[in-house]
Design goal:
Number of domains: 2
Number of helices: 6
Radius of gyration: 20 Å
Distance between the termini: 39 Å
Number of strands: 12
Order of helices and strands: EEHEHEEEHEEEHEHEEH
CATH class of the largest domain: Alpha Beta
């Protein structure tokens, strides 16, 4: 007999990075909730997962089927959802015991000073204009708890990207990532404010949690430096990553340079 989920099934494009017999790992977009607040809720990650996974754990009885941890709606990244009741129990116990490891890039206002805590390991830190980016590891997969633990206040302006997760599942260890762990790069952009390609470059960098220094081409000094960097080539934006110049927006090249999959 086919199982009937408690939640409505939503048709949406989701980026699934891993699926095995026990659980699935999907990239939750910024602005989306992991699960609805009631059985009538829709357009969340688990509503979308029900398109092809009609066997999520507790799907007939819960509006949070298989949810192991929760990224806040304003955050982005990898979310682990169990497909069987036994796996849901096992993964939640591992999460409670701090056995899972989540890697985050975190964009914060430069003036925010995180709190020292044993639950956060800082791997790298870089300042770009008024934004600081931190690369951290933590066993906390709920970003509201992570905000409270590391920042002292859930309401602090911050953007967390869970770009890697290490899951010591009962059957086998699984590591899933949106890209490689790299030292946070020095990124300088030379852009024209109304340029849609320039804005697309900024949006891609920001969505993956990277920072950049933006040099708007509205003064002679910035224009002269941009021309020096790009030489005989033409086009904008001019992108400088760790001293290497590229001209124009090439999504594949940019993601490759940043170690993104």
């Amino acid at each position: 007999m086919e199982k009937i989920p408690q939640l409505p099934i939503a048709e949406m494009a989701l980026d699934v990075w891993y699926e095995g017999p026990g659980f699935v790992v999907a990239d939750k977009p910024q602005g989306m909730s992991v699960h609805p607040g009631s059985p009538e809720g829709n357009h969340t990650l688990v509503n979308g997962l029900l398109q092809s996974n009609r066997w999520l754990a507790e799907m007939e009885t819960s509006h949070t089927p298989g949810v192991v941890h929760r990224l806040m709606p304003g955050d982005r990244g990898l979310v682990v959802v169990a497909k069987s009741d036994d796996m849901a129990t096992a993964l939640r116990e591992l999460h409670r015991d701090h056995a899972l490891t989540f890697s985050y890039r975190v964009r914060l206002p430069q003036e925010v000073v995180p709190l020292p805590t044993a639950l956060v390991t800082v791997r790298d830190h870089q300042v770009y204009d008024q934004v600081a980016v931190w690369d951290i590891d933590s066993p906390l997969g709920d970003t509201d708890l992570l905000r409270a633990e590391w920042l002292g206040d859930v309401s602090v302006e911050a953007y967390f990207v869970a770009y890697r997760v290490d899951i010591p599942a009962p059957d086998k260890r699984v590591q899933v990532g949106l890209g490689d762990r790299l030292w946070l790069p020095a990124i300088d952009l030379y852009t024209v404010p109304p340029c849609s390609i320039c804005n697309g470059t900024k949006a891609l960098l920001s969505s993956y949690g990277f920072g950049y220094r933006d040099h708007s081409l509205d003064n002679d000094a910035a224009i002269a430096e941009m021309r020096r960097l790009r030489g005989p080539e033409r086009g904008i934006p001019v992108i400088l990553i760790n001293g290497v110049v590229s001209v124009g927006f090439d999504r594949h090249r940019l993601k490759h340079t940043l170690g993104l999959y």
